[in-house]
Design brief:
The longest helix is centred in the middle third of the chain and has 4 residues. A hairpin with an 8-residue loop joins strand 1 and strand 2. The chain starts with 11 loop residues before the first strand and ends in a 19-residue tail after the last helix. Strands 1-2 form a two-stranded antiparallel sheet. It has a domain of 34 residues. It has 1 helix and 2 strands; from the N terminus they run E-E-H. It has 50 residues and is largely without helices or strands. It is rod-shaped. Pfam families: GYF_2. InterPro entries: GYF_2. It comes from Nymphaea colorata (pocket water lily). This is GYF domain-containing protein.
């Protein structure tokens, strides 16, 4: 789900033993297990002049 954008660094998580919901990015042991996402490449611009 993370790679498809359904879960992000700001998605709130909770588990037993935690007192409150926390963003995924603030839980390093979980966030580190996700592969990094490559930014979406923008359109290629032709820099030649006509």
């Amino acid at each position: 789900h993370f790679m498809n954008g359904y879960v992000s660094e700001s998605t709130l998580l909770w588990s037993n033993g935690r007192s409150e919901w926390m963003p995924l990015a603030s839980i390093p042991e979980l966030f580190a297990s996700f592969p990094s996402r490559e930014p979406f490449p923008g359109p290629q611009l032709d820099d030649t002049t006509t």
